[in-house]
Amino acid sequence: MERNRITELLGIKYPIIQAGMIWCSGWELAAAVSNAGGLGIIGSGSMYPEVLDEHITKCKAATDKPFAVNLPMIYPAIDQHIETIIKHGVKVVFTSAGNPKTWTKHLKDHGITVVHVVSSLKFALKSEEAGVDAVVAEGFEAGGHNGIDETTTLALIPTVRKQLKIPLIAAGGIATGRGMLAAMILGADGVQIGSRFVASEESSAHINFKKQVVETGDGGTKLTLKELTPVRLIKNEFFNRVEEAYQKDASIEELKELLGRGRAKKGMFEGDLEEGELEIGQVASIIDEIKPAAQIIEEILAEYKNALAETADGKFNFA
Questions:
Q1: pLDDT, tens only, 124-168
Q2: I need a labelling partner for 238 at 20 to 30 A (CA). Which of 31, 132, 153, 227 fits?
Q3: Closest by alpha carbon to 190, among 217, 161, 167, 206?
Q4: What pTM value is reported for the model?
């Protein structure tokens, strides 16, 4: 695969980025993805400062390739996380869930490449204005916390590409080589993949959750809790109670009480498949096996190359 704007920017072999997912993407997954030629990301949103320090230390020991840290802007001790990132000389940070203006200049002043995650054209352009080096545009199909407008990846990527000047990474509903090629044809310079790497051997997700992802079929997820923060969940007992609350016209306060604290950890990290939040994308319906991260990347690349060859041999030439 030839070099492009994303591989050049991030210093990686392939324009495949593993999403920074809370409870699922620790140092082991990040190192495995980076060693396989992609960009691994440590998801810091669920980590205490001392835990992030440990994960970065272990990741540096496990790979000599570039890796990144995902940094949610709403993290309460974000200044401590940034100190840790700078101390360890992490070269790339993916920011999300907040205003990129707040920390972009500070990070870039320390030689860090900054990529911001958005779900709309409006915020993609605001991110570019804030000085980020690239943008991840994430469609409605994605798992976890999501955009309130419910814009699909198929619609979002060409919309953003039309006006954005800096490199663009597509996310949401991408788990295969064909999905990757489709995103690149739509205008992306690279792809960010989350759900497929949740069901990897190196993922820090609980084995119960990994198995549930593999078993989740078509229509097995839904975006909910938009009044609080939109999140795509597997339909389990907790999700059913959320649906019942909506049917009873529950207030925002009642929804907050139902959600409580620690639901995501309970489901994804501790493996409680009934009472936990099980955050995964729609693309779970085509994930049918837990595999090593390196094998996942190898299979994505092989399918990408085969699909690309099909376009070159005229299979799709109807003109």
A1: 999 999 999 999 999 999 988 877 888 999 999 999 999 999 999
A2: 153
A3: 167
A4: 0.93
Q: What is the tens place of the pLDDT at every residue in 61-79? A: 999 999 999 998 888 889 9
Q: Is residue 319 part of a domain?
A: no
Residues 258, 191: one domain? no
64, amino acid identity: D
CA atoms within 13 A on the CB side of 17: 36
CA distance 91 to 42: 13
Structure tokens at 207: 């084995």
Please give the angle made by the CA atoms of 100, 104 and 109, to the nearest 5 degrees.
175
Residue 198 to residue 43: CA distance in whole angstroms: 12
Q: What's the token pair of residue 55?
A: 């994960």
**234-267 b/e with 16+ CB inside 10 Å = b?**
bbbebbeebeebeeeebeeeebeebbeeebbbbb
Q: Which two tokens stand for residue 33?
A: 């993805």
Residue 314 belongs to a domain: no
| Domain range enclosing 174 | 12-205
User: Measured between alpha carbons, how far is 8 from 13 in angstroms, rounded to an integer?
Assistant: 9
Contact call for residues 230 and 146 (beta carbons, < 8 A): yes
- Whether 69 and 41 have beta carbons less than 8 Å apart is answered as yes
Per-residue burial over 85-118, b if 16 or more Cβ lie within 10 Å, else e, is bbeeebbbbbbbeeebeebbeebeeeebbbbbbb
CA 63 distance to own-chain centroid: 21
Taking Cα atoms as reference points, which of 122, 126, 156, 121 lies closest to residue 140? 156
Q: Are residue 108 and residue 239 in the same domain, yes or no?
A: no
Asked if residues 222 and 232 have their Cβ atoms less than 8 Å apart, the reply is yes
Look-up: residue for tokens 């900054």? 114
Alpha-carbon dihedral angle through residues 158, 104, 51, 271, given to the nearest 10 degrees = -20
CA distance 171 to 154: 10
The edge-to-edge listing of strands for the beta sheet with 231-234 is: 144-145, 231-234, 221-224
Residue whose entry in the numeric block shows the structure tokens 């991260």: 293
